[in-house]
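Protocol step 4 of 5: obtain the predicted structure for the target chain.
Materials: sequence only (see below). No template structures provided, no constraints applied. The aim of this step is simply to have a reference model before the mutagenesis design in step 5. Sequence pasted as it appears in the construct record:
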Amino acid sequence: MLHILTELNDLPDEILMLILKKLFNTEVLYSLIDVNKRLNTIVRDPIFTSHLTLMRRFLDNSNYPLPDLILDRFCSQILPSICHKIKWLNLESSSMKRILHATNYPNLYGLGLYDIEIETALSLIGISLHNQIYLQSKEDIQHTFKDFKDNQVTSYVDYFQEQYGLCHIYLYPDQLKYYYTITNNFPGDLFTCIRKISLYDEHPFEH
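Step 4 output (structure tokens):
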């Protein structure tokens, strides 16, 4: 292992980054963080720290926690040292509480939760199934796609009396040939390629 690290340390930064980007971020962090000053600086780059999948995923789409030794080090050392750099976490049910309690995540804006009960997921973000639910506005959802250029994405939201919402998201809307399950909240802008529309009348349509 020492020989491998020595060889890595001899590579130019650009080549080293190209190699490390082919690995999983968790592998990079677990193997190289705090090894030496140079590698420590490189692996703390946002490329390796902003989006972390702290679980094992297999070809059959099953999810398992990280091995105990790896999980222990992430929770006790790695996550607290990079917490301000983390923007997204993908977690599975058996280890998520431990990871979420390992440190504060001041810049976390996204959380992917796998194989968990919906009540658990909602309780983690402070929502009760029996209380009022916060429903995202169209502006909130559209802001999610702010990095798409030239109006590649459009969206709208239907809100229902049972305190749930139905969000419609269209990618490259000017190229669509079909609109399915639209309601009286549909914003219009039917483009020239549209050939078929499916209407959904949970609420009566108004002209």
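Step 4 remarks: The first helix runs from residue 2 to 10. DSSP finds nine helices and nine strands in the chain.
Proceed to step 5.
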